[in-house]
User: Which sequence fits this backbone?
């Protein structure tokens, strides 16, 4: 997707990656099932990781948050597409992998 310049989908899949690992963390560490939500900030709080995240991780959650729901709606797609470039997507991919591994080590 990156090499074919499908930048919205790069962001969407990065969001999905973090959403799913947060839900895995919740399922493994909490007594209740993960909530039915796409909100990364809500999932981070439910997981109890919001107090463990450093400022860079918290900021990255804010970067990923709009790349899920908003990317599905035409009104928001143009605005998001303008904010994404090859270099920005590479950075998002790298940060996604770092955060995923950070959470995975705590599973």
Assistant:
């Amino acid at each position: 997707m990156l090499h074919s310049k499908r930048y919205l989908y790069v962001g969407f899949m990065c969001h999905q990656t973090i959403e799913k690992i947060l839900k895995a963390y919740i399922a493994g560490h909490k007594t209740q099932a993960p909530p039915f939500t796409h909100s990364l900030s809500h999932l981070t709080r439910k997981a109890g990781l919001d107090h463990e995240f450093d400022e860079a991780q918290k900021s990255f959650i804010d970067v990923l948050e709009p790349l899920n729901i908003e990317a599905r709606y035409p009104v928001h797609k143009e605005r998001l597409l303008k904010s994404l470039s090859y270099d920005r997507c590479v950075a998002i991919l790298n940060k996604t992998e770092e955060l995923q591994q950070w959470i995975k080590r705590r599973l």
Remarks:
- The chain has one domain: 7-104.
- Residues 7-29 form the longest helix (23 residues).
- The chain has a mean pLDDT of 92.
- Helices lie at 7-29, 40-47, 55-64, 74-83, 86-104.
